[in-house]
Amino acid sequence: xxxxxxxxxxxxxxxxxxxxxxxxxxxxxxxxxxxxxxxxxxxxxxxxxxxxxxxxxxxxxxxxxxxxxxxxxxxxxxxxxxxxxxxxxxxxxxxxxxxxxxxxxxxxxxxxxxxxxxxxxxxxxxxxxxxxxxxxxxxxxxxxxxxxxxxxxxxxxxxxxxxxxxxxxxxxxxxxxxxxxxxxxxxxxxxxxxxxxxxxxxxxxxxxxxxxxxxxxxxxxxxxxxxxxxxxxxxxxxxxxxxxxxxxxxxxxxxxxxxxxxxxxxxxxxxxxxxxxxxxxxxxxxxxxxxxxxxxxxxxxxxxxxxxxxxxxxxxxxxxxxxxxxxxxxxxxxxxxxxxxxxxxxxxxxxxxxxxxxxxxxxxxxxxxxxxxxxxxxxx
Length: 380
Ligand code: GLA
What we know:
The protein is α+β, with helices and mostly antiparallel strands. It is built from eleven helices and twelve strands. The termini are close together.
């Protein structure tokens, strides 16, 4: 990928890049919509990434290009970047990072040429946007001779998403891309936030089934769930839903409208599932981990209502298949992908059988990715 990126950069800008950064996509292992509620979550950085190459310019321009697009976005370097629309909308992720830098006591870079390249499918719920933010942040910091603690980089990338792009996401995607390591899961206590890793048992394998479906209102639905959770916390008299135990929620059930109760129940029980998953992982009990993964999906399906018939179908098929420990939607939901954790015996032929059953039902074959854990974001 690095050689391909350098060659594409030369072809586009007529010179070599001076800085290259790479940041991986992530699997949300378990902890669905727990992050912005102050809870805990587990994720895995995967072996598919966004790569960014940059070189300085002296004419005060920022030139943004992506390997998948002909057009280059040419902007005047400014300390307060302006949000882009249309074909250049993707530039909002690196631009948001630039907008975030001063908020964290860091300097925006001067003029540069920028090229992004990826082998991470977008729209699959694997966090291509967070990967782009992390790779851009590392590249901009290196280009301007600055350094920052990894937790700061992660938080400024979330800031970009919240305050520039306009999505009220939590810290999961950026945290996992920033702190991921091969054969480890990233554990995030989202309130600090605090980042740690938990070893993944050697027998665990990951398969991703990307439905290529995306609810037309996905951003609005995500924001609506976010609001419902904050409203539920307010009605319960706590700052965040993570401040309530499942027992306390049951005791206060009458204080909540039914929809808010369901959302809150999902979140508080999901946080308990994350903690139980850590215990099961440490004990090497993949069967117990798998049961928790599938229970998480059922809770998304019934209580949080962020699943879809396509995702449910895949989970039903996978949960019934031999050598599958568990399966669940991964990421925000309302479309995207299902992740299955399997034993090594689960075969490509079995994955194809699931894909064919899906095609028979929905008329389109999902993309099947055998995914491995991979390195976290780094300069290359
Ligand atoms: C998206 C968001 C994350 C998180 C998940 C749901 O991936 O970006 O912050 O809220 O959805 O768990």
